[in-house]
Amino acid sequence: MIEYLYLLATALIGTSIGFIQSKYFVTYGYTGSIVLLGLANLIIFRHNLTIYTTILSILVILHGLRLGSFIFIRNKNSSTYRRQIDEDDEKRKANFMMSLTLWVSCALIYSFEVIPISYRLKNENKDDICALIGIIITAMGLIMESLADSQKYNFKKRSPNRFCDTGLFTVVRFPNYLGEILIWFGLFISGMTIYQGILQWAGATFGFLAIGSTMYFAAVSLEKRQNQNYGDNKEYQEYIHKTPILIPFLPIYSFSK
Hints:
Layout: H1 2-15, H2 28-44, H3 51-77, H4 79-91, H5 96-122, H6 129-158, H7 175-190, H8 197-230, H9 234-242
């Protein structure tokens, strides 16, 4: 039990940057927390590490570093995006009690996202096929999200007033969100053979459902914003009626209706 409290404390440290600006709870607080949580697993459970758990922890760390760097570069170089974020932040300015609630809830969610690795290490389980499958899915998600972020960033530099419909965005409208879901789905899958008891199953399931629902609501919000910006564009209407919103080949084209 003490190990999990260490992980929660680690996430609380990572998310504490949100007290500077509330938006940081879900941006730099998120990326910083998962980097620290990945490192914490490697340190706290160092005597139980296996090849697969080491790889999973490294993938989590790489994801946090990559996403945090991307957010910083995007915010620094994109005046349009920075203005939108500032407007959103102005709408949700938090008082101290709200910030405290956000701090604790975000830290809990982030620690539960990473906890499948902790369970495998705590239970002293050997590497198995589920861990390998989890590594593959997580790596695929990391690659997909990285490519999608890069493609959209470069596209917006060339055409700031047009919706992105190239590269991975021809497959689904929000491939970066799909990549994020795959990263944590891979971690959840990696522990399916080793969860012990209902509490471990509940913890791992909560972590994945939390990030899954977060990505769903993020997609809803972005879809509404794009509809406002491009709703009168004929090419945009054609694009959204032929390209699934989040899941490839699944004919779901809208979440906001």
